[in-house]
């Protein structure tokens, strides 16, 4: 109704509304497909996040058990010294991948061969096990950060896409359909009036010829 009240009921506007409605329906279909693809991608990332978290729980448990054993064997102070000597990770490669227009970060990390940063003096096998386990934890944390960031970005885009789909489905398309229906009624009424006028004119013309 709102659109109809601001548009004259002419055939040109009627055809223009029909074109606009066709575009709105096409846009609705494309947005609906986009939303479905984004939801599928997000579900895939959610499954991956659960797998990473489950694996991380197991690795963390193994790492902490080994660390506790090491603390008892060589002492907490020695473990702290070794811990402070571990270098920071600075070889992460961050790239962006587009999923239906949504830029999702991808991080690659190639730690290479494992070389303990401590000597064998005053250390034991439990420390080696803990060191390897925590390196695996770091790798899992990197992957989990990627997945959670992707989930966040996809969720935001799904929410925006859903709003657009709802607006087209519940407001724009129904209003345009109603406007087209009302203009069509006006045009049909105008056609009927024109037909009756023409019929009366023809009837009057025939009567005059008789006289």
Please, could you describe this protein's structure?
With 211 residues, the chain is mostly helical. It has one domain (2-204): Helix Hairpins (Orthogonal Bundle), CATH 1.10.287.3240. It is 77% helix and 8% strand. It contains 4 helices and 2 strands; from the N terminus they run H-H-H-E-E-H. Helix 2 (11-74) crosses helix 3 and helix 2 runs antiparallel to helix 4. The relative contact order is 0.16.
- Structure summary, number of beta strands: 2
Oligomerization:
single chain
| SSE string | HHHEEH
The CATH class, by name, is Mainly Alpha
Spatial order of strands in the largest sheet: 1-2
Q: Spans of 5+ residues with little confidence (pLDDT < 50)?
A: 1-5
- What is the beta-strand fraction? 5-15%
Topology:
Elements: H1 2-5, H2 11-74, H3 76-84, E1 92-99, E2 102-109, H4 125-210
Antiparallel strand pairs: 1-2
Helix pairs in contact: 2-3, 2-4
Brief descriptors of the model:
4 helices, two-stranded antiparallel sheet, Helix Hairpins, 8% strand, single chain, 211 residues, mainly alpha
Summarize this structure briefly:
With 211 residues, the protein is mainly alpha-helical.
């Amino acid at each position: 109704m709102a659109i109809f009240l601001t548009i004259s009921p002419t055939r040109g506007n009627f055809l223009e509304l029909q074109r606009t409605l066709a575009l709105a329906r096409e846009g609705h279909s494309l947005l609906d497909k986009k939303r479905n693809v984004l939801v599928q991608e997000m579900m895939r990332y959610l499954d991956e996040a659960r797998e990473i978290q489950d694996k991380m729980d197991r690795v963390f448990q193994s790492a902490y058990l080994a660390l506790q054993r090491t603390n008892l064997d060589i002492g907490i102070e020695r473990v702290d010294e070794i811990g402070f000597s571990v270098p920071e990770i600075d070889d992460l490669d961050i790239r962006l991948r587009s999923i239906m227009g949504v830029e999702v970060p991808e991080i690659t990390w190639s730690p290479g061969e494992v070389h303990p940063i401590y000597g064998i003096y005053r250390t034991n096998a439990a420390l080696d096990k803990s060191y390897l386990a925590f390196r695996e934890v770091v790798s899992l944390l990197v992957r989990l950060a990627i997945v959670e960031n992707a989930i966040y970005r996809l969720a935001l885009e799904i929410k925006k896409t859903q709003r657009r789909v709802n607006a087209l489905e519940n407001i724009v398309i129904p209003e345009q359909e109603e406007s087209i229906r009302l203009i069509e009624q006006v045009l049909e009424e105008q056609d009927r009036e024109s037909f009756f006028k023409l019929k009366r004119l023809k009837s009057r013309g025939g009567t005059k010829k008789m006289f």
